[in-house]
Amino acid sequence: MGQTRKMLETLESDAERVNAALGDYLDSDVQLIGEVGRHLLLSGGKRLRPVLFLWCSALCGQEGPLGVSVIFEYLHAATLLHDDVIDNAGTRRGKPAANVLWDNPAVVLVGDFLLAKSFWLAVQSGEMRLLEVLSATTQTMAEGQVLELVYTDRLDLNQDQYKQVIVAKTAVLIQAACIIGGIIAGAGSEWEEALKTYGLEMGIAFQMVDDALDYAGTTDEMGKPVGYDLKEGKVTLPLIHTLAQASKKEIKLVEKLAKMGDYGPDEFEDLRQIVEKYNGVGFTLDTAREHVRRAQEALEVFPESKERQNLIELADYVVTRRK
Amino acid sequence: MGQTRKMLETLESDAERVNAALGDYLDSDVQLIGEVGRHLLLSGGKRLRPVLFLWCSALCGQEGPLGVSVIFEYLHAATLLHDDVIDNAGTRRGKPAANVLWDNPAVVLVGDFLLAKSFWLAVQSGEMRLLEVLSATTQTMAEGQVLELVYTDRLDLNQDQYKQVIVAKTAVLIQAACIIGGIIAGAGSEWEEALKTYGLEMGIAFQMVDDALDYAGTTDEMGKPVGYDLKEGKVTLPLIHTLAQASKKEIKLVEKLAKMGDYGPDEFEDLRQIVEKYNGVGFTLDTAREHVRRAQEALEVFPESKERQNLIELADYVVTRRK
Question: Which helix (H) or strand (E) holds B71?
Answer without folding.
Answer: helix B66-87
